[in-house]
Amino acid sequence: MSVPKLEDVAKLAQVSKTTVSRVLNRRGYLSKETIDKVNQAVKELNYHPNVVARQLYNNKTDLIGLLFPTVANPFFGELTANLEHYLYQKGYKVLIGNSINDPQKEADYLDQLLVKQVDGLIVGTHNQGISQYHNDNLPIVAIDRVMNQDIPIIASDNYAGGKLAVEHLLVQGARKIIHINGPQELATPAQKRRAAYEDVMHDHHLQPITYEVDFNISNTDKLKVFRQIFVEHPDVEAIFASNDLDAALIMQIARERRLRVPRDLLLVGYDGTQTVQSVWPQLTTVIQPIEFMAQKAVTVLQNRLHNQATQSEYLLPVQLHVGTTC
Amino acid sequence: MSVPKLEDVAKLAQVSKTTVSRVLNRRGYLSKETIDKVNQAVKELNYHPNVVARQLYNNKTDLIGLLFPTVANPFFGELTANLEHYLYQKGYKVLIGNSINDPQKEADYLDQLLVKQVDGLIVGTHNQGISQYHNDNLPIVAIDRVMNQDIPIIASDNYAGGKLAVEHLLVQGARKIIHINGPQELATPAQKRRAAYEDVMHDHHLQPITYEVDFNISNTDKLKVFRQIFVEHPDVEAIFASNDLDAALIMQIARERRLRVPRDLLLVGYDGTQTVQSVWPQLTTVIQPIEFMAQKAVTVLQNRLHNQATQSEYLLPVQLHVGTTC
Asked: In this complex, is the C-beta atom of A276 within 8 Å of any C-beta atom belonging to chain B?
C-alpha cells in the first residue's frame, strides 16, 4: 500500500483538499460534521500530515535556531540542554549551529532565519561583523553577547561576578593578582568581569594585569600564552580566570611548575557548570545561573516573536562557590 | 517596501511561477536565457526563496535529528558537536532532542521523522519500547544503543575497553574490584563492558560484583547507591565506573570517607571526554573515539539515505589513559 496523501483523505471524506487542509490547521469556520468526517478519514487511512506543507501554510516552522560556539564546551552544552527543555515546553523544536571559529558558518545559519526555516534565533557566538544582524526587528535574543542596539541581551551580572572573585582573592591575602579574559575588542558582557577586576584592583592601589586569549584557540595555544604569565610574573600570587576550563589549564601549568594550589598559588574560575562542579568541586568559581538564563532567554524570545516590548538587557544574579583553590 | 514574493520574480522575469521554481530548484530542462532572466530578477528584487516551500517541492528538508539523553553530559555534548560538524560538511543542518527520562518526548521527536520534518535520525537515547522504531527501513543510525535488528549501530569496542580497565586494575594489585554499570535489562552495547569485567574476573577466579544505576537518575540518587558500595563492601580495593561522571561521584565519596586515591582505593572511569580529561587529567579512564564515532555515524547514515547496504554494527577502537587514580 502506498503512503496516503491529502487527496486520499479529501476523497474519502468527500470534501475538497482545501477543507482537509483547513481542518488539519484549525483555520476558518468549519461545521462539526465536516471536522468529524475529515478526522475519521485521517484515522481510517492512517494519514500523517506532511509537516513541511503545514509549515508553508502557516508561514512558521516552530523551529528555533541556537547559535553557540560549541556544545562540546560544558557551559554551552548545559545552556543548550536547558534552552531545549524550555523551548520544547513552548512547542518549539531546536536547530543547533556550532560556529566556533567560523564566521561563514554563522552567517549561513543566520540565512536560515531570513529564508524562514527557523522562526527565531538565540545567539551566543563570538564571531564579529556578521552583516545579517544589521537587519532590524529580527526575532533574535543574545546570550552574553552584544549584537546590535536592537537585540536584547540576557547575561548574568558579570560585573558583580568579577567583583566577588577579586574581593575573595584579596581577603585570602593575595596582592599580585592576574586576570585572564577574551580580547578587549570583542564587545562581550564578559568584559565587565575585567572592568570589575580593574576597578577593585585600583581601589586597593594594586596594578591590574590582564592576559587576553581568544576563546576559540586550541588548548595547546592557550597553554603557550598562560605559561608566559609565570615567566613574565614569577611572583604571581593569584589568577582569576574568566572560565573554568582556562582555570583547569592554569592548574595543569601549576602542576608542571610544582606550585601547590592554594599554598603557592590561589585560583578562581568562572562559570560553575554542573560538569566541572561535579568533577572538580575543589575549584573556587563564580556560578552563572545557566538554567535561569535559558528560561529568561526563551521568555524574551517569545515576547519578541509576539511583537511585545523587551528590555535591552536582562541581568541575572551570580554566586561564588568557595572550594579549596582559594 | 513589502517582502518580494515568487510571483514578483515571475512578473519581472516575464516567465511563469513554475519556471521560477524550476530555476531555483535546478529542476528540468531550462534554456540559459531563462535561467539568466530569472536570476537577474531574483537579484534585482533581493528575493529570498522560502526554504520551506523548496523543502516541500523537493520532499526533503536537509535536516537530521539527533536524539541523545542530554548535551549537558560532556560525552553527548562532544558527540553532538562532532556530528554537527560532519553533517554540516555534507550540507545538513541539525535538529536536537534531549530525551533524558522522557520516552514521550523521544516518541514525539521520532514522529518528526515520520512526518518528514527531518530526513534522518542519529539516536543514542536510553528509553525503551518506543513503537516508532519498529517501522522498517527508517533512515536511522544508532550510537551505543540497540534499537531493532534493522538499525545499524556505531559503538566503540566496549568489550575491549572493559578488558583494558579491569586488567590494568589487576596489574596494579587490586583483587576486590567492583563495577558500576546501567541496568542489565537495557540492551546497550555498554553492557559489554560488564561482560568483559565479569569474564576477566572469572578468569582470575575472582568474584565479580556489579552495582546497577540508571543513567537518568539524579546525582543525589546515584550517590545513595554508590555509598552503599562502601557500606556493603568495606574491603573494596578498586572501582571500575562505566562513565567518568560516576567516577567523579565515587571520588566525592572517597573524600567523605577519607580514603586516598590511589593509596586506599583504585579508580578507573570510562569515556575520556576532552572536558573531563582537561579538568581531571589524573583520572585513569578508557577513551572512546568520539570524533571517529561521529564521522562513521554520518557516513553510515548517508549510505542509509541513499539506500546503500550497511553493516549491522561498526566497532571502533578504544584506548586506556593512565592517570594517577590507578
From this structure: yes
The answer to whether residues A177 and A265 touch, using CB atoms and an 8 Å cutoff, is no
| Nearest CA distance, A49 vs chain B (angstrom) | 6
CA nearest to A273, candidates A290, A250, A248: A290
Q: Which of A72, A114, A279 sits opposite B78 (nearest CB)?
A: A72
Q: Closest Cα of chain B to A111: distance in Å?
A: 9
Cβ A155 vs Cβ A313: under 8 Å: yes
Q: Which residues have CB under 8 Å from B271's CB, separation 6+?
A: B74, B75, B243, B244, B285, B286, B287, B288
Q: Which CATH number fits domain B6-58: 3.40.50.1000, 1.10.260.40, 3.30.450.40, 3.30.750.24?
A: 1.10.260.40
A106 in reach of chain B (CB within 8 A): no
User: Whose CA is closest to B125, among B149, B96, B150?
Assistant: B96
Contact predicate B320/B168, CB 8 Å: yes
- Rounded distance between C-alpha atoms, residue B282 and residue B265, angstroms: 14
Instruction: Please state, in angstroms and rounded to a whole number, the distance separating the CA atoms of residues B134 and B299.
Output: 23
- Report helix, strand or coil for A137: coil
- Write out chain B residues lying below 8 Å of A325, CB-based: none
Structure confidence by residue, pLDDT tens digits, A156-204: 999 999 999 999 999 999 999 999 998 887 778 889 999 999 999 999 9
Q: By the CB < 8 Å criterion, does A69 face chain B?
A: no
Q: What is the residue extent of each domain of chain B? A: 6-58, 63-155+291-316, 158-289
Of B117, B103, B74, B8, whose CA–CA distance to B273 is shortest?
B74
Choose the most confident range, by mean pLDDT, from A202-211, B35-44, B121-130. Answer: A202-211
Domain made up of A63-155+291-315: CATH architecture = 3-Layer(aba) Sandwich (3.40)
pLDDT at position A53: 66
Question: Are B77 and A82 in contact (CB < 8 Å)?
Answer: no
Residue B295: all three cell numbers together: 564521522
Q: What is the CATH number of domain A158-289?
A: 3.40.50.2300
B117 touches chain A (CB under 8 A): yes
DSSP code of B161? H
Find out whether B290 and B79 touch, Cβ atoms under 8 Å. yes
Residues A112 and A99: beta-carbon distance below 8 Å: no
CB of A52 less than 8 A from some CB of B? yes
Q: Does any CB of chain B come closer than 8 Å to the CB of residue A110?
A: no
Sign of CA dihedral B102, B103, B108, B113: positive
B63-155+291-316 has CATH 3.40.50.2300 classification: yes
Q: What is the ipTM of this complex?
A: 0.85
The x, y and z cell numbers of residue B315, run together, are 566497532
Say if B216 is an interface residue toward chain A (CB within 8 Å): no
- Kindly determine whether residue B116 and residue A279, on different chains, have CB atoms separated by under 8 Å: no
pLDDT score for A127: 67
Residue type, B279: V
- Candidates A21, A71, A79: best to mutate against B (most CBs of B within 10 A) is A71
Q: Which position has the grid cell 566556533? A: A100
Q: In the block, which residue shows the cell 534531549?
A: B98
